Amino acid sequence: MARHMNKKLFLADYVYEVETDFGIDGTPATWASTNNGKPAHRYWDDEDDKIELRFFDGQESGEFGNFATSHDDKLVAASSGSVVGVYNLETKQHCMQFRGLAFPCVKLMFSPASTESGVYLLAIETSDREERKSAVFFMELDQDGHMTHKPDTIDVDDLLQRSLEPVVSVMNDSFGVHSPTPILESVREGYGKALEKLRAGVESRHLSHVAGRSSGFGSNPFSMDGQLFLYLIQNESTQSGPRAPADLPKVIVYDMVNKCEKHVLGGHEDAIMWTAFSPDSQYIATAAWDGTFRIFDVSTGDCKHVIGPTGGQCWSGAWSPDSKHVLLCGMANQDSRGETFVAVYSAETAEQVNRFRNEQLRHWVRCVAWSDRGEIAIVHETNNVWIWEPFEDKTIGNFKVKVDDRMRERYAAVSAVQWVSGGEILVARAGDDTVEIWNRVENVKWRIQRPEGSGIERGIGMLRWSRGDRALRSFGRDGVMRSYHL
What ranges cover the WD repeats (predicted)? Predict the structure, then answer.
């Protein structure tokens, strides 16, 4: 009998284990000493503090799919289907609930800076696969987290009832059909859905928006000053057949201040996977399935460099903190040998500085992070995480989750990494949402492990490092924020 695996089956009986721990030059990290009486290795429910985040009226556990926090960690936004809510972490108050989305929310992003008028800007990305439509709405929030402009709305239930009264009357007088009946209930259901879309359109009609979607795999769609935003159009793969140049995938540079297109960046001939502003906002780097990376000048929109073709699909990248170099990741070929391409280039000259080479590197690298100290965390889909110093071409150490069953491998693998505390600490999230925290300078570690049997509904939607109190915050799909002080 053929076996199969999904996330629910994986979490049902998986027990987290580490095969190779973080360390420096062969010296494994030791458990950190703590000052709060908590062990360095603990479980989700052994938090130092927790807050139930009330985003919506009548919210239920496990319903949250996306989270985002403001640049100052004051506000947190979450979505549940086509509803978005905002919570103020300082006042511990629910701020607003927005129901003006015709399609489900797939991503939330706060601008990295306040607008010129001093308000927060929340980007809400929606998508409908069946209709193949995507859009990003931009919502302004005041200092307390409320919408700066109250949306218009309609009472769907009242309008539905009043609209159907003539229909029910005619059906009753002419055919003796009384409400409720299956035929009238189907009309009520269909018309109700149409009115819900109408209400969503009315509530969102004053929000500025763009028709497109942002890219993934660690993309950085906002410039650091929040004045520019990147989104993609026509980004379907061309592998099923060629398209005219005008219909190929494009990157749009959107001016958030003037609410208009600044540049249309073309040249890629297949789906674009990754886009990112350099930290100084002078360059934009892109990676696409056509086997090339491109570097564009933000001020002119001109393509400054084309790197590749590499011989396979290109997936992701990361900018150095000083904007002088860019890490690019893809496949060097698509045949059975499956060689992976991970290399650092000069942004100014497009010359390759160093290429990461490892005999185990045979699968996609779609998650990377470049620290302020200059070290790069490279996440491999075979459960490896390598720490690489690119300018010395030195692998400092690596981490690996233990998986005995190959069917569980991709579910158990590390899915996200981030450097915090000035690049001294690496936070890595495994596939079961166990969190590994490693201090690169002191070579000590912490672990916040998922309890057995907690299920998908207990999953972590987002992790956030709190600089002020050196705490890691987890935002759970159960609507609870848990804080762990290190």
Answer: 265-306, 407-439
Tens of pLDDT, residue by residue over 323-332, are 999 999 999 8
DSSP state of 24: E
Structure tokens at 67: 């989270």
How many domains does one find in the chain? 1
Give the pLDDT confidence of 38-97 residue by residue, as tens digits: 999 999 999 999 999 988 877 665 578 899 999 999 999 999 888 999 999 999 999 999
How far from 366 is each of 2, 20, 178, 327, CA to CA, in Å? 29, 21, 58, 11
Angle subtended at Cα 235 by Cα 207 and Cα 255, rounded to the nearest 5 degrees: 40
Angle made by CA atoms 293, 291, 279, in degrees to the nearest 5? 20
Rounded to a whole number, what is the distance in angstroms from the first to the last CA of the chain? 47
Record the pTM: 0.92
Cα pseudo-dihedral 43, 45, 47, 50, rounded to 10? 150
- In tens, the pLDDT along 335-390 reads 556 688 999 999 999 999 999 998 888 788 999 999 999 999 999 877 899 999 99
Neighbours of 294 (CB within 10 A): 25
Strands 83-88 and 93-98: antiparallel
Tokens of 249: 């995938």
Alpha-carbon gap, residue 104 to 126, rounded angstroms: 5
Tell me if 167 is assigned to some domain.
Answer: yes
Q: Is 162 inside a domain boundary? A: yes
The set of residues, in sequence order, having a beta carbon less than 8 Å from that of 90 and lying 6+ positions away, is 74
Which residue matches tokens 């360390």? 23
In a domain, 88, yes or no: no
243 closest CA partner among 266, 262, 264: 266
| CA angle centred on 435, ends 10 and 402, rounded to 5° | 50
Within 13 Å, how many C-alpha atoms sit on residue 75's CB side? 29
162 phi, psi to nearest 5 deg: -70, -35
In 3D, which of 300, 212, 210 has the Cα closest to residue 256?
Answer: 210
